[in-house]
Design brief:
The chain has 236 residues and is of the alpha+beta class. 52% of the residues lie in helices and 14% in strands. The protein has one domain: Hypothetical protein af1432 (Orthogonal Bundle). The longest helix has 21 residues.
Length: 236
């Protein structure tokens, strides 16, 4: 199914859905409001920036691993909307994000089967879950979400009041997600440059150890190995 793009050319159906979502005033307002809530509660950035990075990285992962275009854009849609439920509450936000996403996509006349795949991925992204990651779309979203650690996510402007999450994120000067596809085992690598003047590597593991475990479990679903590199040294 294809939708014609203005001025010639074509956009595939799901690519058009993602394109429209990224420009939908109601969607953008809701994500921004969710982030303002989190800022007031002392959390790092979960706004448009994080939504776009998660969307782009989820698509990048599946594209590099040669998944179908349809699944690539489903992951992109899920990545863009995965935190929208924070507008209601941080608690169980993966569930509220799924419900809000269902209504948004239903209003956009997205196919029911595609909606279900998206909300399934969103519902599986939170690191409180002890369950296995259900499929490749959810796995891509998990890795894309958990790999976004960077100083630009710190919303607290007073360094004197930084908590451990602020310090660790602020210490990360560069983050890069790399996917290497091989004939036998693929490799998904998170390469970080951390300024240890702001946070120690041990502090990073204190708050991100469970997230890295989720990335490892997700990579296994993608027939891949997940590796973490910090300041040129492989940590996992």
């Amino acid at each position: 199914m294809e939708i014609k793009k203005k001025g010639g050319g074509k956009l595939t159906y799901l690519k058009q859905v993602l394109y429209n979502l990224e420009r939908n005033p109601k969607v953008l307002f809701t994500i921004q409001k969710a982030n303002s809530n989190l800022k007031a509660w002392g959390y790092t950035e979960h706004g448009i920036r994080h939504a776009k990075i998660t969307s782009q990285r989820a698509m990048y992962i599946l594209q590099k691993l040669s998944y179908p275009e349809e699944d690539i854009y489903l992951a992109g849609i899920a990545g863009f909307l995965h935190d929208i439920g924070n507008v209601i509450s941080r608690y169980n936000h993966e569930i509220s994000s799924s419900f809000i996403t269902f209504e948004i996509l239903k209003e956009m006349n997205v196919r029911y089967e595609d909606i279900i795949k998206v909300v399934s991925a969103i519902g599986s992204h939170e690191d409180n879950s002890f369950l296995d990651i259900p499929d490749h779309i959810a796995s891509a979203v998990v890795i894309a979400d958990k790999s976004d650690v960077h100083r630009s996510r710190v919303q607290n402007t007073d360094m004197n009041t930084f908590d451990i999450h602020d310090r660790v994120n602020y210490a990360v000067e560069k983050d890069k997600l790399i996917v290497n596809k091989n004939s036998s085992k693929h490799h998904i690598i998170l390469d970080l440059k951390i300024n240890t003047n702001y946070s120690s590597i041990i502090e990073y593991f204190e708050i991100f150890l469970h997230r890295m475990k989720m990335c490892k479990r997700s990579a296994e679903v993608l027939s891949s190995e997940f590796h973490l590199i910090i300041n040129g040294q492989r940590m996992a």
